From TrEMBL:
GO terms for molecular function: microtubule binding. This is Uncharacterized protein. GO terms for biological process: regulation of mitotic spindle assembly. Pfam families: CCSAP. It comes from Eschrichtius robustus. One of its GO terms (cellular component) is axon. It comes from the Eukaryota. Residues 44-65 are annotated as: Disordered.
Length: 81
């Protein structure tokens, strides 16, 4: 192979190299966006779980000793039992 032939081959190979780089870049961008979507999905899931826990704690009835309508007699009776 002469110098001109090797130069022609090098010129032909160069666009292929940039195409490979572009493919790698596109793949990396897809992976990045996939990770971001997954991160957002997990954050929303975590937020839903947290808000469900907060709602559950609000719905729980207070202990009978904390009930303001409980009479003194009932309070003393339950303390003896």
């Amino acid at each position: 192979m002469g110098k001109t032939e090797s130069r022609a081959v090098a010129l032909l190979e160069k666009p292929l190299y940039t195409e490979v780089l572009n493919m790698i870049h596109e793949s990396a961008l897809r992976a990045k966006s996939r990770r971001q979507v997954e991160k957002r999905r997990l954050a929303a899931q975590r937020q839903r779980a947290h808000s469900a826990d907060v709602d559950r704690t609000r719905r729980v009835k207070p202990a009978s000793s904390e009930n303001p309508w409980m009479t003194e007699y009932m309070r003393c009776y339950s303390a003896r039992a």
